[in-house]
Amino acid sequence: MAKGDVLIRVAVDAMGGDYAPGEVVAGAVDAARRGGVQVIVVGDPDAVRGELARHDIAGLPVVPMPSQGTILEEEQPAIALRQKPKASVVVATGMVKAGHADACVTMGSTGAAMAAAAVMLGVMPGIGRPALGGPVLGMAPRTIILDLGANVDCRPAQLVSFAAIGEVFARLFWEVDNPRIALLSVGSETGKGNRQVRETTELLAASGLNFVGNVEADDLPNGAAEVVVCDGFVGNIVMKLTEGAGAALGRRIAERLDGAMQQDEIDALAQEVRSLHNVVESHGGGPLLGVKGVSVVGHGRAKADAVSLAIGTAVRAVEIGFTSKVSEQLLSLQERPGSST
Amino acid sequence: MAKGDVLIRVAVDAMGGDYAPGEVVAGAVDAARRGGVQVIVVGDPDAVRGELARHDIAGLPVVPMPSQGTILEEEQPAIALRQKPKASVVVATGMVKAGHADACVTMGSTGAAMAAAAVMLGVMPGIGRPALGGPVLGMAPRTIILDLGANVDCRPAQLVSFAAIGEVFARLFWEVDNPRIALLSVGSETGKGNRQVRETTELLAASGLNFVGNVEADDLPNGAAEVVVCDGFVGNIVMKLTEGAGAALGRRIAERLDGAMQQDEIDALAQEVRSLHNVVESHGGGPLLGVKGVSVVGHGRAKADAVSLAIGTAVRAVEIGFTSKVSEQLLSLQERPGSST
After folding, report:
1. ipTM for this model
2. Are B236 and A217 in contact (CB < 8 Å)?
3. What is the CATH number of domain B1-127+288-320?
4. Rounded Cα–Cα distance for residues B68 and B66 (Å)
């Protein structure tokens, strides 16, 4: 929680996400009530005023901040950013840039959040685009997989940078002493994998990081490492397949058990199967990685609880100095002799 | 089944697979008993004789054929092929080459089967290495995904060839009239995906094939297309993740239901979950794709039933003229104006 009386200031994009602004504002109020954070609710003034009126926020550190419009999921982020300079996610990110907030949080378009962060906060050297990462499989909640879709064509040196970021993530967020780093491949033996993976394997082995080698996808559910690195194309497929298979399997199990158990028990089991296949939905959201500032992107389907969790993640990222620790880690990686970054 | 009195001759590698030679020979005998096929059991003479003695094969079309040694999973296929020219998979493939068998089947090292097929039978133009493909998700048993791991660095034109092969597979094996072909990507919109996928999308759109666009991984369990094309690196990760998640989920569900249901019902459900996530194990095996001859590779863990199924697949491939149909399809693809293959 906050040190002394200083509240960590989080700008929340009230207009982004499937259940905005209602659930987002509710989540923001909940986070403020739990303490340690001043929530700046960024959105169309009427909408924000209307939603805040539904809650008793007397004495709570909740501040409205006007914006105009929203960038939608289907818009091309770079273009939308120029066309809607006052959109909620742009204003929220701009507050971090200007030093008026310590972090921003959105449940809206990931692409828009990434574009805003890249343009306004800046990306660390050697990263390319801000990376996405987090636990994907419910059976391995302490494995961060990155990138999950931001960078679909990666150079090997970029994958090494992701490894370094993941290492900081696991060490600071999960307090794992010496996180194991693995590279996702199609065979655990060195020499297996595609060109990109074979080159990355060599770089990782020489990186000074705690590289434990390559893992195959069937080892992911077993928590084979705290950090699993892959390019965003592969990571996104892993994430989406997990999600899709979990949903389909939940339905199938519910059908299969129909009549054999109480309906509420069946529902609970089907839901558990879905969650085991979808941590993204249950853990609230993660920070954009490699960005010079804290910008947390949550799931579009987030309801109040998940929004509150995402704000909590942003607070924690600020408290542990995530941004500067990542920056130092990348710098020390680049200073190693023979580094090609 | 066989036309008239002519039996289709299948050379079975009796020494390959986790349960060889016992289960493999049992499966071979079973296939012979079901009719339409002459089974040539290739293996170390003593081992084959010993196993055949366990069955009543009087009057059955089962013929032993001596070989010497086996290529193991952990051996480097190209090297092993030179060092063990009389190994069971080499002899079995050689019989197809020499016209003494119509097809060969192995449960042994996939790499060895591929290497033997590539060297002895030859690969069709534009394919690179023999491709692996088949249904992967039990929820989508009529979706062939290819490549599943043989070609980990693919040119776009190669992916188009895979699409053409998959089309023939779905049309002939599953009797689907006009199979839908999709490309696995990270967004269904054109323009999304990595460089390889974006280039392949254009080629497929101009290929004359029934290309329905790009699918995301969360759509795979829904049977979004009969043919899903991806490079072998991605396909292998899809296959392994499916398998690993199914196994982990089966265990988890079994724990979760412990005491709430009869143990045998729990076991059946857990097994069903695993199978839904693992068609490879239950459907016996598939032909190497793009090879000039029928070579079927089954799962290493195959028992007699699965071996018999794999032999059935080989028989069917011969009956439907799979090899020549694929060859014609690839040729007509290459003859299209503007083809870059």
Report:
1. 0.88
2. yes
3. 3.40.718.10
4. 7
